[in-house]
Design goal:
By secondary structure, the chain is mostly beta strands. Helix content is 0%, strand content 46%. The protein is built from no helices and 16 strands. A four-stranded antiparallel sheet has the order 1-2-3-4, with no helix packed on it. Strands 5-6-7-8 form a four-stranded antiparallel sheet, with no helix packed on it. A four-stranded antiparallel sheet has the order 9-10-11-12, with no helix packed on it. A hairpin with a 6-residue loop joins β7 (68-72) and β8 (79-83).
Length: 194
Amino acid sequence: ESASPRGFLATPHFVYFTVDQKTGPDEVWRTDGTNEGTYKLADGRTDEAAAVGDTLFFNNCCATGDSELWQSDGTPAGTHLVKDIHPGPEPSAPKEMVAFGNKVYFFAQDGQHGDELWVSDGTTEGTQLLKDLLPGPASPTPNIGVTGHELVVIDRMLYFRAIDPDTGHELWKSDGTAVGTALVKDIHSSHNES
């Protein structure tokens, strides 16, 4: 069987990628370009991953179904759960990760809020909800003919798509703080479905 490597993510010293095990969970691997430096780190995928320096943040989704935020410094010993965002067996399903400064931003759900914007510095305490864009259990995830938030960093600002009941799907931005996370403009102000 082929390993079918995919989801390549380059860092200063490694390339992280996903290996398809066919009969088992997908696995996160790393390579430094040598045979000895190419090995498995954990179950999971790099499709929804981001790197801060050589540190990989990824969704360890595959072994138990309880997908949560994990990180790796490129060694098996340095690969571990960052935080159980949705405590218990339910997944927080972190996705759409992007590195911004020395942190990673992503969307996840904790069981009390919907699929909301989170931030992590790689510590349990430093992994928290950045802002509840659509208060309550609902999610600001666009779901009418479009999918995803499409997080992108440009000129020290994070831009993404989100939805709220007043403006519909619109362009948002964040400077990495809750106060600095806001609607850029209600482009279609005549209705709530831009």
